[in-house]
Amino acid sequence: MAATYQITAGFMPLFDSAVLVAAGEMGFAAREGIELTLHRETSWANIRDRIAIGHFHLAHMLGPMPLACNLGLTPLASETIVPFSLGLGGNCVTVSNAVWAGMAAHGAVPDLDPARAGAALRALIRERAGAGRDPLRFAVVHPHSGHNYELRYWLAACGIDPTQDIEIVIVPPPFMADALAAGRIDGYCVGEPWNSASVAAGTGHIVTVKALLWRNSPEKVVGVRKAWAEENPDALAALLRALHHSARWCQDAANHAELAALMAQPGFLGLPPAVQMPILTGSLSLGGGAERSIDDFFVPFDKAANFPWKSHALWFYTQMVRWGHVAHTPQNLAIARDCYRPDLYRLALKPQGVALPGANAKVEGALKAATPVGSAGASLVLGPDGFFDGQIFDPDEIDAYIAGQKSARAEA
Amino acid sequence: MLPPIPHCTIPSHRQNTGMVRSSLAVLVIDENRIRASIIEAGLREAGHERVTVIHDVTGIARRIAEIEPDVIVIDLENPNRDMLENMFQLSRAVKRPIAMFVDRSDQASIEAAVDAGVSAYVVDGLRQERVKPILDMAVSRFNAFSRMARELEEARSELESRKVIDRAKGILMKSRGLSEEAAYTLLRKTAMNQNRKISDIAQSLVTAAGLLGPSEDE
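^ Those are the sequences you sent over. The predicted structure of the assembly is below.
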């Protein structure tokens, strides 16, 4: 039978493209009448350009990227919306052996605790500054990325000014481990498997993880060209159904070996399946023989992981404001508020009896434990969703939150 | 309505009016040395004297500070594009703001560039008519290179097929005592019956012969 819908999507060779890849490769898209063509790309800039000129209908994107497009922060962009999130968590912060030794001398232990690791890093940075040494250089994958914003959030909360006390540069994920080994950078924040890669090579230590900085927090999303979404509502709904089933399949531990083998293929990640198991199990080697198991390390489906929370988009917006990427104006806030589209998620999945949250935004950091929430006739568990420093982000109090984080930065 | 692009509206640091016809400094960043030299040659033929080619982006901030390029041409396969874009906007080494070559009225030109696999960045304030010929040149040379690479690949695979068919013929001639012509006819007939390519049948035969034991063909 010929497919009803032809959809073309771009992705970057990162593990968190798995839900999109599996939708195409494991038959979930075909079952919804979709012929899904996947194109592997080499940079986020290429993904942005190909969406803008209409080569791709949608793509695997960094969570803040569609916001950056709509806010006019990128050279070439078309209006992009987010009707589906590809998962929560999955990133780590890794430092060189030398930085780890310096942090250990200031009290760091391999337990991934963000506050303790941050205090040790701060002490090391002060010591280096006192000795007149160059600032440490950290890398992230893109300026408008969850990695950049969570690294900065962690540092700032620990009294390190990421704009003064360290340097932040951009390095593509597959080059992170090599750059660290060669001494071109001192640390980085990136998704797996590029942290475990440095640990396995004996050239780095994982010091903390995204799941501990902000539990169950947003990472990659499906960014859709808005014009296409508006002209093809049925195709979009079919795609969201396919992604939903794919995400559930990816979450199930019984499928992890098959998923790892799929992602190992040269057309996707092209890395051995064993390298992909830490992100699926949450059991990480931290370096120096230390092991740690992290709850909710990467969540592709559970905890309403695919729901495009407006509070997630708005938190990214607060960080864009915080670090001078965009001015806080009513117009920009409105653009940020309209970018993630839980209404489209609901429209596609409610008829399927999928458990849906009652609201489109939540107070981030309010859930201290996993909490069952009443939803449309099905059970759903959310959270915990706390920031490591105990801060609360209430999207209804966004002005106060932005004002508060500015003063926090000044004190740092 | 599309949002404005902030860094395209930053006033130029340079007084373009006073130096209209001076030649532009063009930087080509391409890991593919052959393609880079094809573009370089094209630009020189078109009268651009100040062309620099970089294959490896290590230390590129310093090079950009030295060269002060007016136009930067980058291949889209370059995985460092995100790093480079960020650097164009932020680095202290880049004295003049550099924006992507983008003119919304010229969607066809952008599409042609992305289709060809190339992108260009220009210093802010440079007039489009000065840059367009450079981009057009890069696009046509990228396309020519792709065509050449495709033809080369086709020739290579043609040669490979011919080699494997020769080996399969040899196996049939030896094991079944056929003439060369009869061996080829058998391969062709089998391929037609199975609706497969003759080189695929030949490859299967060579593989099977290898598995079934030592032969002269090994």
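Residues 363 and 394 of chain A are 5 Å apart (CA to CA). The two ends of chain A are 62 Å apart (CA to CA).

Shout if you want it in another format.
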